[in-house]
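Protocol step 4 of 6: structure prediction from sequence.
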Amino acid sequence: MTRVHCRQTRRGTIAAAALLLPVTLAACSTGTRNNGGSAGTGGTPGNGSKVIVLIPKQTSDPFFTNAEQGAKEAAGELGYTINYVGPTTADAAGQVTTIENAIQTKPAAITISANDPNAVAPALKRAAAAGIVVSSYNADVAPDARQFFISQASDDGLAKTIVDTMAEQTGGKGHFLLVTSTSTAANQNTWLAKMKEYIPTKYPDMVIDQVVPGNDDPATVLSVTSSYLAAHKSDTTGVWVIGGGMSAAVKAQQRLGIDPKKMPVAGLCIPSDVRVAVKSGLIKNCVLWSPADTAYADVYAIDAKIKGKLPTGSGTLAAGRLGTLQVADGIVSVGNPVTFTADNIDKYQF
């Protein structure tokens, strides 16, 4: 692994990065590139069904209900039905059960935002062997367990934007706490690794002192942020949250008498989770993408795969209102990250 600018300090050893956004953030990844994986070698793609099973990290997350809306929009245009089903909390075992149950119904496709990329892989391989098209969106699975991945934004683009938006508020220097999702989330681990690669090249005076998991749970984010800042209130410059629950980090600051405007909170967010804080100036900005567009593109890619029109190497995908999307080595790229501010956040209702 590339040497990073997050060192062991008096505050402790850097923890492993984690998972998802909840309000989804961890919900997200651009995945490991590898020629589209090896899943899907059995049966006729799609099985003649017109049902697509859309599995979120957790059904109760507004991020994923927005993705469901985008999937249903595309499904209506292409003649499919979306079955939105999964665990109510971010649980890999629940996703495995959902996959196994879905296989029995013989749908055209199963697409998933993985809570754990490896835990769900065996069940997805069984689905592919049954002729079901298997894809992932938002948070990738093991590459050999799916036929393609829908990347909502590039890993590099996300990581750099997360860093840049904090650097703008801190003069590109200081000591930081980073709250991630869970240690098994592939997307979170990828973004953190890329942040660590980018920081020393652009902002050598920025240091991530500690990484702690927030489990995409506001109560957990509140607890771990409060505990850390209680011990390091005077020497922490800012707090990154790249899993869900950014507003909980602001609440932790306020309970400790810290002004969020003087110790910025930045990272990945869900607009509905931070809207009040952003509009009041407690959070200056945060980053994400459109989950609806990601799932919309997923349905178009599934349809192309079933019809034998999805490129296996490099090429393009015609994706309805999204226009022409780039495809490379099993990755369909949707777009660039969005930076939410007080000026634009009301445009995003999820």
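Step 5 (inspection) to follow. The domain at 155-288 is CATH 3.40.50.2300 (Rossmann fold).
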